[in-house]
Structures are given as structure tokens and as C-alpha cells.
């Protein structure tokens, strides 16, 4: 294992707020990571890093305004997952969001798609188990 990989694995995780926008029919919004970012081209749930002294849900709301131009009105905390990538150790806080204002727009040049059967590929590694879990709770 490289020295960089050892350092990344032992580093404090970066907190990330992640939103699962869910339509009444159960479809969820996935976004494609833009060029210039690690895992460019991979699909994931939208979200972003939590700033110092920022509440996780407020970070989620801020990220959705910045990335998609929508205002998330409410979100239910769903789960928290840690994942170690080669470039970062992240702690992902997932919220299921069923109420928002506006229609998603590509404000950062990223593609996005409403998905029910998950036909986009490739999926970000930390996203795959969440989609499997989500299929079990989707219509509850």
C-alpha cells in the first residue's frame, strides 16, 4: 500500500451532506461528476462538503442551491456511511428529500437524470449499496 493511501485511510473523514431527491413515484435524482473532479463521469446523489460550524442539513440546502438551483424545504435523515476512496475518506450523511421548490438545473455543468431503474453508469462506489438499500425503503 502506498504512503498516500495509508495517510488517506488514517485521516479524519470529511463530512458530506447528500440529498436523495425523491419524486412521488419513487424516482430519484442522480448527478454525474464533472470533469476535473475525482471520479469524473461517475453518477452519484448530489451534495457536498459540510463547512466548519455548519449544520449538515443547512449544508445540504446550500449545496442544492449552488449546484441545482433548487430550495430543499425538508429532509429526513436516513443514514450515515463512511467510505474510503484513494483521494479522500468521507462520512456521507444522507437525507431523503420529498419537498423542494424549483426544477433542478445544471448550474455547474453536470449532467443529471431522474432514475427509477438506475440505468446510468458508472455509479460512484459509495452510491451502489445506497441504491440497493433505497430500493427496499423507496415507497415507505
Automatic annotation (TrEMBL):
Enzyme category, top tier: hydrolase
Reaction equation(s) it catalyzes: 8-oxo-GTP + H2O = 8-oxo-GMP + diphosphate + H(+); 8-oxo-dGTP + H2O = 8-oxo-dGMP + diphosphate + H(+)
EC number(s) given by UniProt: 3.6.1.55
Domain Nudix hydrolase residue range list: 12-137
SUPFAM superfamilies linked: Nudix
Pfam families in the record: NUDIX
Cofactor(s) the protein requires to work: Mg(2+)
PROSITE patterns: NUDIX (PS51462), NUDIX_BOX (PS00893)
Keywords linked to the UniProt accession: DNA damage, DNA repair, DNA replication, Hydrolase, Magnesium, Metal-binding, Mutator protein
Family annotation (InterPro entries): Mutator_MutT, MutT-like, Nudix_hydrolase, NUDIX_hydrolase-like_dom_sf, NUDIX_hydrolase_CS, NUDIX_hydrolase_dom
Homology family: Belongs to the Nudix hydrolase family.
The protein's name in its UniProt record: 8-oxo-dGTP diphosphatase
Organism whose genome encodes this protein: Massilia varians
Amino acid at each position: 500500500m502506498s504512503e498516500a493511501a495509508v495517510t488517506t485511510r488514517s485521516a479524519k473523514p470529511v463530512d458530506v451532506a447528500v440529498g436523495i431527491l425523491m419524486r412521488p413515484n419513487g424516482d430519484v435524482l442522480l448527478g454525474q461528476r464533472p470533469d476535473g473532479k475525482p471520479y469524473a463521469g461517475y453518477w452519484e446523489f448530489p451534495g457536498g462538503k459540510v463547512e466548519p460550524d455548519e449544520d449538515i442539513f443547512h449544508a445540504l440546502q446550500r449545496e442544492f442551491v449552488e449546484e441545482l438551483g433548487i430550495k430543499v424545504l425538508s429532509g429526513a435523515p436516513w443514514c450515515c456511511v463512511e467510505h474510503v476512496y484513494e483521494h479522500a475518506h468521507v462520512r456521507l450523511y444522507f437525507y431523503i428529500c420529498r419537498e423542494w421548490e424549483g426544477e433542478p438545473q445544471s448550474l455547474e455543468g453536470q449532467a443529471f437524470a431522474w432514475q427509477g431503474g438506475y440505468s446510468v453508469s458508472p455509479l460512484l462506489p459509495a452510491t451502489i449499496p445506497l441504491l440497493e438499500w433505497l430500493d427496499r425503503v423507496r415507497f415507505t
